[in-house]
Amino acid sequence: MKMWSGRFRQPLDPEFDKWQRSFPYDQRLLPFELSASRAHARALEHAGVLSAEDLAEILGGLNQIASHAESSPEFLNDPEAEDVHHFVEKKLAALIGASGYKLHAGRSRNEQIATDLRLFVRATIDELQELLADWIEAILARAGSAGSAAMPGFTHLQPAEPVLVAHWLLAYVEMFLRDSDRLASCRKRVNLCPLGSGAIAGATLALDRRAIAADLSFDDITANSMDATSDRDFAIEFVQSLSLLTLHLSRWAEEMILFSTPAYDFIALPEPYSTGSSAMPQKKNPDLLELVRGKAARVAGCATALETAVKGLPLAYNKDLQETQQPLFEAADTVTAILPLATGWMRAVEFNFPKMHEAAQSNFMNAWAAASYLVERGVASRQAHEAVGKAVQICLERKCELQDLALEDLKAIHPSFDSDLRARLALPDVLAIHDVQGGTAPQRVKQAIQSARKRVNTLRPQEPVAIRR
Ligand code: ARG
Question: Which residues, in sequence order, are bridge partners of residue 350?
């Protein structure tokens, strides 16, 4: 039986009927639909709409649906179910008879889908926080074991200044800590219960909305029935946060790809996460990284699809909203699949520290340190800059580095250059002068690792959400 056939004289066009169904993809919401239905059934009993016997039967039936769905996937083969809500109603009636049809009293699918999607997003955020914590810990572990190894830092992809390898890795830690923070903040706006909103104007029965919310472990109830049944900003915000997260992952992937090329030779690609070429026998390709970079496009597309689906929608519920489900699921699935793989990659990659360290001492990456040396001696910074620029020019002609120039050559450029300059141009000194919070001086980086460790320890959900069975 359809959920709405009473006023229709003609059956649906079979092609249209099939085409408009969401059950093929919204069946994954079944556990949430069942939890929300249990909470609604209890509220109906409390309001005197269901007898204690009805309630017991309904709860029993809902539990049977849950266990059938878990034990046999064929149970979900139902070409007639329009959506997950219809499926539950049909199965309940089939399992417990007429009292099954009483469950829909005082509720609408419009509030049900809004609730199921909020429960889905909340559960996914909690899962992602665990995965993000693993991922950030993996990067942090590599930062912790990189010790005093240095590498070139680039701006414009041109050699700029040397940095500690740990400092470079910590840049990614910060990006992903912010991504985690964004998800935590999004979760607060997700974790509100729409049940009791009805189809648009609010439930027609005296349902205890707070009790329903408490059963489902929501923090609070939504404030406006029209908004609650028709907005999807919680899903948009979630997918936008995922889009930023994958954008960060794509930057990470791109740098790893670049640094694995022979031109850099900073990292050796881990074989378990790389593939060969069917034609060129020598190849080891960074497929995991390339796919991570590519999948960022897909998640950005999901965010755009969601934004566009809601743009210009009049209040309140419109069937367009059904179109928000697949991009939401796709973005969630894409990111939950990437994170453990990226974590495995990060644990397995080999860094070529000698090569990185050597590269950190070439291409005049100590030029700013040389200019700072002059500034310390009272030279105006613009003059210091000019003087070191001149010195670099000479080095380029002679194919050497600043520390190779003779003192008399340097003095000829600027009298404030002195014999202690050479030590100041050596890598440990160049790193050490960046002695500010957030800078690459080894002591600062050590502190930054400790602070990041503390922050990552707070990411994992404290306890699993308790939903009343
Ligand atoms: N499958 C629908 C969706 O995902 C459920 C809500 C249907 N509501 C309605 N009034 N037809 O949006």
Answer: 268
